[in-house]
Amino acid sequence: MRTESFIPSTTLVSPATTADPAEVTTRAETALLDLLADPGTRVGVVGPDGSRTDVLVADLRAAMSVAADAEATEDADRQGGSSPLDVPYLEASPWLLWRRRVGWLAVLFVAEMCTGSVLRHFEDELATVVALTFFIPLLIGTGGNTGTQVTTTLVRAMALGEVRARHVLAVVRKEMTTGVLLAACIAGLAWVRALVLGVGGEVALTVSVAIVLIVLWSVLLASTLPFVLRRFGVDPAVVSGPLITTLVDGTGLVIYLSVASVLVTQLGG
To answer: In Å, what is the CA distance from 61 to each residue of 43, 75, 223, 224?
Structure first.
């Protein structure tokens, strides 16, 4: 997407060299907002080639709105696991929609195949304690939802310039702390749900411990993957809900059934 600079043709402020930087910034922002408040004001637009054209603020607002809408649409498409469309939706043919969606869908399908492999690996544990299967959708669904919440917030903050690569440790600390609080709350609900179903204390404990580990793993994955993708030049917006859910499905099952193979065997045997 082509980016242009918008430079007001009027001098906003002329601060003294000894003025406080924070005060200068505040005055400049206020003056700029006042300038752009009048739709009839003309500002200079400098294009990529260095040429300058005077345009009305009203036209400038319209152009910026169109650009913002296009950017939001592109991010929404990527977060849904689909490549952005180059034409309005109603003008897109089924063939174009297929080409934009099949790539990610195939990748996610292959990744989901790992889930079946995990279930097959732990089939003895599942056959021994059938009640473990009752909680599989609950656990991996919670992990996927947790990761999606993190990436939605983080990708938006990165797009706004609020979060940069140097903030990765701060982001991980913040999200992991939040994850501990969320995990404790959800684990309590999982314990109650397991007891209500009458599956026994060992299964209830297994579910509660597993949900804590799955939530924390999902938070860690979702809070670091956008930085990794950006480091390799990939748009963090591709860390979509479907992708995070797929990653957590397989790894969440490994966590859950590994915990079950230890706790159920120890407590029940």
So the answer is: 11, 21, 34, 35
For residues 12 and 81, is the Cβ–Cβ distance under 8 A? no
Ramachandran angles phi, psi of 233, nearest 5°: 80, 20
pLDDT-derived band at 170, boundaries 50, 70, 90: very high
What is the spatial distance between Cα 245 and Cα 235, in angstroms, rounded to a whole number? 18
Quickly tell me which residue has 């500002």 as its tokens.
43
Indicate the domain borders of the chain: 5-79, 117-268
Mean pLDDT of 77-81: 52
Angle CA(207)–CA(243)–CA(149) in degrees, nearest 5?
A: 65
| CB-based burial label for 114 (10 Å; 0-12, 13-18, 19+) | middle
Name the pTM for this structure: 0.66
Q: Which CATH number fits domain 117-268: 2.40.50.1070, 3.90.180.10, 1.10.357.20, 1.10.287.3510?
A: 1.10.357.20
Find the range with the poorest average confidence among 73-87, 195-209, 229-243: 73-87
Q: ∠131-133-135 over CA atoms, to 5°?
A: 90
Nearest Cα to Cα of residue 179 among 227, 138, 133, 143: 143
pLDDT digits 0-9 by tens, 19-36: 555 554 555 556 555 655
The one-letter code for the residue type at 92 is A
Nearest to 220 by CA among 185, 186, 176: 176
Cα gap 198→217, rounded to integer Å: 28
Write out pLDDT tens, residues 86-138: 777 778 788 888 887 787 778 777 777 777 777 777 777 777 678 888 898 89
